[in-house]
Amino acid sequence: MTASQSDKATRFRALHEGPGAFVIPNPWDAGSARVLAALGFPALATSSGAQAGVLGRRDGRVTRDEALAHCRLIVEATDLPVAADLEKGFGDTAEIAAETIRLAGGVGLVGGSIEDATGSPDKPLFDIGHATERVAAAVQAARGLPFPFTLTARAEGFLRGSPNLDEVIKRLQAYQQAGADVLFAPGLPDVASIRTVCSALKKPFN
Fold this sequence. Notes:
The chain is an alpha/beta fold. About 45% of the residues lie in helices and about 10% in strands.
């Protein structure tokens, strides 16, 4: 029996509320999604880099329409919950980030991430105030969906030339306060850093 989007969203939220960690792999297409489901993973998450690679492009060079079409294929390949790497929401404004979350729900996704990277080498990260406004708008859009969409907020400093742990924690705490369900800081250098970040947050950490 095919699981409903609401059922998958509830299962995905429950995974984050459990007492321990769980592993969520990144399929790059519908076929790899089916392989990963057969291996027993409880959920899937798309990767912007993998998606771009399938199209022969660099990460960050995929349009929102292309990304959502790619996500829909992965969603429809299995009965597993699927969350998406939605980069910065495919635009700089809070309104665009919010619209991306609404559209993500429309293709069957039950979760997605919004990052604070600008995509510009001249200024790699949004100012913390604007970044937090973008997360808050994405959260509001997620709450407006008819199922519990899990919104992840990403602090990208360690990947974008600003490896300051205190600053990353400050940003994650601001995104937590803005309502993000899950926090994510890719590129942390060691277990000690991960432990420090986790101890500073009250929400699940990816």
